[in-house]
């Protein structure tokens, strides 16, 4: 498992041992909200956060680090 503390409001976790066909990250927000986002597209797979614009900096970070994340 790899953890990234990258935002003031959120952090990313990758569990490389999960057996899912779609590479994704787990995002936990400071208020306890949790979502899973696809690494390649940034699509919301599971979870809820409000307002949804809180996902934009996370998606930007994922896009900037996509290659490294896909090797985890």
Structure description:
The chain has 72 residues and is of the alpha+beta class. The protein has one domain. The chain contains 2 helices and 5 strands. The chain has helices at residues 55-64, 66-71, and strands at 2-4, 10-14, 24-29, 34-38, 44-47. It has a 5-stranded antiparallel β-sheet, with no helix packed on it. Strand 3 and strand 4 form a beta hairpin. The termini are close together. The mean pLDDT is 90.
Helix/strand/pairing category: alpha+beta
Report the portion of residues in β strands. 25-35%
Number of strands: 5
| Total of domains | 1
Q: Looking at the structure, what is the overall shape? A: globular
Mean pLDDT, nearest integer?
90
Helix amount: 10-25%
Strand order of the largest sheet: 1-2-3-4-5
Order of helices and strands: EEEEEHH
Low-pLDDT stretches: none
Distance between the termini: 9 Å
* Integer-rounded radius of gyration: 11 Å
The main pleated sheet reads as: 5 strands, antiparallel
Topology at a glance:
Elements: E1 2-4, E2 10-14, E3 24-29, E4 34-38, E5 44-47, H1 55-64, H2 66-71
Antiparallel strand pairs: 1-2, 2-3, 3-4, 4-5
Summarize the structure.
The chain has helices spanning 55-64, 66-71, and strands at residues 2-4, 10-14, 24-29, 34-38, 44-47. The protein has 72 residues and is α+β, with helices and mostly antiparallel strands.
